[in-house]
Amino acid sequence: MDSLGQKIYAYIRKRYILGLLLLFPIAVTYFVVAFAFNSLDGILQPFFRAIFGKNIPGASFVTLFILVFLVGALSNNRLVKKILELFEKVLQKVPLTNGIYTTSKQVSTAFSGGGKKGGFHMVCAIEYPKEDVWTIGFLTNTIDFDGTDHGFVYMPSTPVPNTGWLVAVPRKKIKVLDLTADEAMKIIVAGGLGASKSLNSLPEVDAK
After folding, report:
1. Closest by alpha carbon to 180, among 141, 138, 208?
2. Residue 154 CB partners (closer than 8 Å, separation 6+)
3. How many other CB atoms sit within 10 Å of the CB of residue 19?
4. From first to last of its 208 residues, what are the pLDDT tens digits of the chain?
5. By Cβ atoms counted within 10 A, which residue in 9, 46, 111, 187 is the most buried?
6. CA distances, 174 to each of 47, 63, 78, 119, 138 (Å)
7. pTM passes above 0.85
């Protein structure tokens, strides 16, 4: 290939890679949002089809959005509270369903910061997968494991934080970091980009 051909090839290759880098996050966002929208929109479509004789694109999504908003807006209403408590009691008495509901509620409370301690807002670091190599995660709970205090640490994966792994680590080997959950998630998702120049740990904190 002559010099001119090499220059053209290098130019096209460089611009193509640049285009991929620019479009990749947009494409990922589109497919994730589209998948979520289509999944939610399909929930109530059978009801709309039975009533109107055809699918109404977006109707399920809008209906569910309004329903969730109303539940949140009326969450302090006594009547709504009583209904939700009754519904919760029914679910807790149904085999299999009770375990799923209880676990889901614990996770929901943890992510929303509803728990007084622990949950998914106490950022920490542990030596993983080997000594002197630190991984950022969330200290979700502490337990007595064979007579020794251990912490459950959930470590989100990069760049998709909705998957990860859970480990039980001796409490003395866990460093609680001076980071908010949002700051930690940004570091994890971005693969370390955007992190500050220094990272400091906090005094011992109990997550029980």
Report:
1. 138
2. 120, 137, 138, 140, 164, 165, 166
3. 10
4. 567 788 888 888 888 888 888 888 788 888 888 888 888 888 888 888 888 888 888 888 888 889 888 888 887 888 888 888 888 888 878 887 777 777 777 666 655 544 445 567 789 999 988 888 999 999 988 999 999 999 999 998 887 777 788 999 999 999 999 998 888 888 888 888 777 888 888 876 555 5
5. 187
6. 51, 45, 42, 15, 10
7. no
C-alpha 6/C-alpha 2 separation (Å) is 6
In the structure encoding, which two tokens stand for residue 168, read together?
Answer: 């039980």
